Amino acid sequence: MTQHHVREAAGRFAKCPKCDGQPRHIEHFGRTLAETMANNFLQGADPRDPLASPLFADLSGLSPVQVEVSGRDGIRDDALRLAVALAEAGVEVTVDDCEGAIHGYHMFAPETPEAKAGTTRLASFLNERLAS
Q1: Are residues 111 and 70 in the same domain?
Q2: Burial of 111 per CB tally in 10 Å (0-12, 13-18, 19+)
Q3: Is residue 12 predicted with pLDDT exceeding 50?
Q4: Burial letters for 35-53: b for 16+ Cβ neighbours within 10 Å, e otherwise?
Q5: How many Cα neighbours within 13 Å face the side chain of 129?
Q6: Residues 47, 78: contact at Cβ < 8 Å?
Q7: Do residues 18 and 75 both lie within one domain?
Q8: pTM (2 decimals)?
Q9: Nearest Cα residue to 59 out of 28, 92, 37
Q10: What are 92-96's contacts with CB under 8 Å, separation 24+?
Protein backbone atom coordinates (compact mmCIF):
# COMPACT_ATOMS: atom_id res chain seq x y z
CA MET A 1 0.00 0.00 0.00
CA THR A 2 1.20 3.51 -0.69
CA GLN A 3 0.61 6.88 0.90
CA HIS A 4 -2.20 7.30 -1.60
CA HIS A 5 -4.26 4.78 0.34
CA VAL A 6 -3.18 6.34 3.63
CA ARG A 7 -4.30 9.79 2.53
CA GLU A 8 -7.68 8.40 1.51
CA ALA A 9 -8.09 6.61 4.80
CA ALA A 10 -7.24 9.79 6.65
CA GLY A 11 -10.19 11.46 4.98
CA ARG A 12 -8.37 13.86 2.64
CA PHE A 13 -10.34 13.12 -0.52
CA ALA A 14 -10.49 14.84 -3.87
CA LYS A 15 -13.93 15.52 -5.28
CA CYS A 16 -14.88 13.38 -8.25
CA PRO A 17 -16.93 15.10 -10.97
CA LYS A 18 -18.08 11.72 -12.25
CA CYS A 19 -19.56 10.83 -8.86
CA ASP A 20 -21.71 13.93 -8.36
CA GLY A 21 -18.97 15.70 -6.41
CA GLN A 22 -18.61 12.93 -3.87
CA PRO A 23 -15.17 11.95 -2.58
CA ARG A 24 -13.28 10.19 -5.33
CA HIS A 25 -14.43 6.59 -5.43
CA ILE A 26 -13.48 5.72 -1.85
CA GLU A 27 -17.15 5.33 -1.02
CA HIS A 28 -17.49 2.78 -3.81
CA PHE A 29 -15.62 0.20 -1.75
CA GLY A 30 -16.06 1.62 1.71
CA ARG A 31 -14.17 3.82 4.11
CA THR A 32 -13.77 0.91 6.53
CA LEU A 33 -11.79 -1.10 3.98
CA ALA A 34 -9.50 1.86 3.24
CA GLU A 35 -8.93 2.48 6.96
CA THR A 36 -8.19 -1.21 7.52
CA MET A 37 -5.71 -1.25 4.64
CA ALA A 38 -3.99 1.90 5.90
CA ASN A 39 -3.74 0.60 9.45
CA ASN A 40 -2.43 -2.74 8.24
CA PHE A 41 0.24 -1.04 6.15
CA LEU A 42 1.31 1.53 8.72
CA GLN A 43 1.35 -0.76 11.76
CA GLY A 44 1.20 2.33 13.99
CA ALA A 45 3.85 4.27 12.04
CA ASP A 46 3.44 7.94 11.17
CA PRO A 47 1.74 8.23 7.74
CA ARG A 48 3.98 11.22 6.98
CA ASP A 49 7.13 9.13 7.38
CA PRO A 50 9.01 9.10 4.05
CA LEU A 51 9.17 5.31 4.28
CA ALA A 52 5.38 5.25 4.25
CA SER A 53 4.98 7.88 1.55
CA PRO A 54 7.22 9.18 -1.21
CA LEU A 55 5.32 12.48 -0.95
CA PHE A 56 7.24 13.22 2.26
CA ALA A 57 10.63 11.99 1.02
CA ASP A 58 13.59 13.78 -0.52
CA LEU A 59 12.96 12.91 -4.16
CA SER A 60 15.96 14.73 -5.59
CA GLY A 61 18.43 12.62 -7.53
CA LEU A 62 15.98 9.90 -8.49
CA SER A 63 16.09 8.26 -11.90
CA PRO A 64 13.37 9.24 -14.40
CA VAL A 65 9.86 8.20 -13.35
CA GLN A 66 6.84 7.20 -15.41
CA VAL A 67 3.56 7.85 -13.56
CA GLU A 68 0.54 6.03 -14.94
CA VAL A 69 -2.83 7.25 -13.70
CA SER A 70 -6.33 6.19 -14.54
CA GLY A 71 -9.47 8.25 -14.57
CA ARG A 72 -11.47 5.92 -12.35
CA ASP A 73 -8.78 5.42 -9.71
CA GLY A 74 -9.34 6.53 -6.13
CA ILE A 75 -5.65 7.40 -5.79
CA ARG A 76 -5.37 9.32 -9.06
CA ASP A 77 -5.02 12.73 -7.45
CA ASP A 78 -2.26 11.56 -5.12
CA ALA A 79 -0.39 10.05 -8.07
CA LEU A 80 -0.59 13.44 -9.77
CA ARG A 81 0.66 15.13 -6.57
CA LEU A 82 3.60 12.72 -6.60
CA ALA A 83 4.35 13.66 -10.21
CA VAL A 84 4.38 17.35 -9.25
CA ALA A 85 6.64 16.67 -6.25
CA LEU A 86 9.04 14.70 -8.47
CA ALA A 87 9.18 17.51 -11.03
CA GLU A 88 9.74 20.09 -8.28
CA ALA A 89 12.64 17.95 -7.03
CA GLY A 90 14.22 18.10 -10.50
CA VAL A 91 13.34 14.54 -11.46
CA GLU A 92 12.41 13.79 -15.06
CA VAL A 93 8.79 12.69 -14.81
CA THR A 94 6.29 11.63 -17.44
CA VAL A 95 2.58 11.30 -16.70
CA ASP A 96 0.16 9.30 -18.79
CA ASP A 97 -3.53 9.42 -17.95
CA CYS A 98 -5.68 6.52 -19.09
CA GLU A 99 -9.12 8.06 -18.74
CA GLY A 100 -11.80 5.54 -17.90
CA ALA A 101 -9.49 2.81 -16.63
CA ILE A 102 -9.53 1.44 -13.08
CA HIS A 103 -6.74 1.18 -10.50
CA GLY A 104 -4.28 -1.53 -11.50
CA TYR A 105 -5.53 -1.70 -15.08
CA HIS A 106 -2.09 -2.79 -16.33
CA MET A 107 -2.58 -6.24 -14.85
CA PHE A 108 -5.25 -6.94 -17.47
CA ALA A 109 -2.76 -6.86 -20.35
CA PRO A 110 -3.10 -8.02 -23.02
CA GLU A 111 -6.84 -8.57 -22.48
CA THR A 112 -7.92 -4.91 -22.59
CA PRO A 113 -6.79 -2.18 -24.97
CA GLU A 114 -6.05 0.19 -22.05
CA ALA A 115 -3.82 -2.35 -20.35
CA LYS A 116 -2.02 -3.21 -23.56
CA ALA A 117 -1.39 0.48 -24.29
CA GLY A 118 -0.25 1.14 -20.72
CA THR A 119 2.20 -1.75 -20.58
CA THR A 120 3.51 -0.78 -24.02
CA ARG A 121 4.13 2.78 -22.74
CA LEU A 122 5.90 1.46 -19.65
CA ALA A 123 8.05 -0.92 -21.69
CA SER A 124 9.02 1.90 -24.07
CA PHE A 125 9.84 4.17 -21.15
CA LEU A 126 12.11 1.55 -19.60
CA ASN A 127 13.72 0.49 -22.88
CA GLU A 128 14.59 4.10 -23.77
CA ARG A 129 16.21 4.76 -20.40
CA LEU A 130 17.96 1.42 -19.99
CA ALA A 131 19.43 1.59 -23.49
CA SER A 132 21.40 4.74 -22.71
Answers
A1: yes
A2: exposed
A3: no
A4: bebbeebbeeeebeeeebb
A5: 13
A6: no
A7: no
A8: 0.70
A9: 92
A10: 92/64, 92/65, 93/64, 93/65, 93/66, 93/67, 94/64, 94/65, 94/66, 94/67, 94/125, 95/67, 95/69, 96/66, 96/67, 96/68, 96/69, 96/121
- Is the per-residue pLDDT at 104 higher than 70? yes
CA–CA dist 75, 71 (Å, integer): 10
pLDDT of 37 reads: 82
Which of residues 29 and 130 earns the better pLDDT score? 130
Q: Tell me the C-alpha distance between 15 and 23, whole Å.
A: 5
| Co-location of 22 and 84 in the same domain | no
pLDDT reading at 46 higher than 90: yes
Checking if the pLDDT of 100 tops 90, the result is no
* Claim to verify: residue 82 and residue 63 sit in the same structural domain: yes
Q: Do 46 and 64 reside in the same domain of the chain?
A: no
Domain count, the chain: 2
Residue-range definition of the domain harbouring residue 40? 1-57
